[in-house]
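Ticket closed. Logging final result for Esterase-like protein.
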Amino acid sequence: MDDAVGEGPEPSGAPLPHPPNLARTAVRLLQSQMGRAGSAVPLPAFLRGTLAYTLRDLARDAFELLRRLDFLDADAAGPAARRVNIVGCSMGGMIAQHFVLDYGRHVNSLCLHATCADLVCPAARHLRTVVGVLTDKPPPPPCGGALYKAEVVDFKVRFFQALCGELPFSEDEFRRSMRGAVERCAYEGGLERQLHAIAADRDRTPLLRHAFNRAGGVPGDGHNRFPVLVLHGGADALLMPSCADHLACCCFHQAKLTILPRMGHYFPPCTFVTIADSILLNGEEGNDRVCRRARNPGDG
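Final structure:
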């Protein structure tokens, strides 16, 4: 396994300190900031337009970026062709679904983490908590500044505490990581565009089922040729565990489902090793499938 693509920051800017667990295993990590590109300052009103930057647009941009960086072969024919291991978390998982729908022949393995095939509303009691935190978000000042950045960090702490589930939330460690993220970019305008893209996307279930879980299909024709792993927190307040069950059972043929019982939508350090190992093992299974197909072209 050479490349793990995905696991970029959440739409609301969650820091992800766990990629070093993957990097220690000689996996190259590519964290895209496409969803926040150009977000250092607000766009002028006359440049904003009316069309959403869609999830499929993001998937297309991801493919082109990987191709231009020479991470994959445009042809993807034969066992020697370079393919990528796609990992998508939350909104990234939605983009990953579009990626495999459009560019599945370039995929070695797929891991969908804390995501869904269709936009669902959290349970009422969780929704009240999340909305309560979101309405407490600091308004952006005209010129930013240290005080605003500190307020953004405080907001992020409150937001992810509300999403962390039943596992310990290390506030000090989170603050340190988030300060670095806010120093890089404190402007939050990208979040609005990302939420617009999520809301505008349709239910992907029919497309996924037709491509990867069609009754009577054969690998490559209604079934996925690459292994699919679905990871989810059993205490996820934003996307219920039933979203993961739907992905694994209805959308992908023979997908593996792993529920981490007390984990929420935010994954703390105590889950890093489990998540990283799961991603790596799934990628290795993808390598094994490629080798089997090379020995026996009829083997899916």
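Residues 272-295 form the longest helix (24 residues). No further action required.
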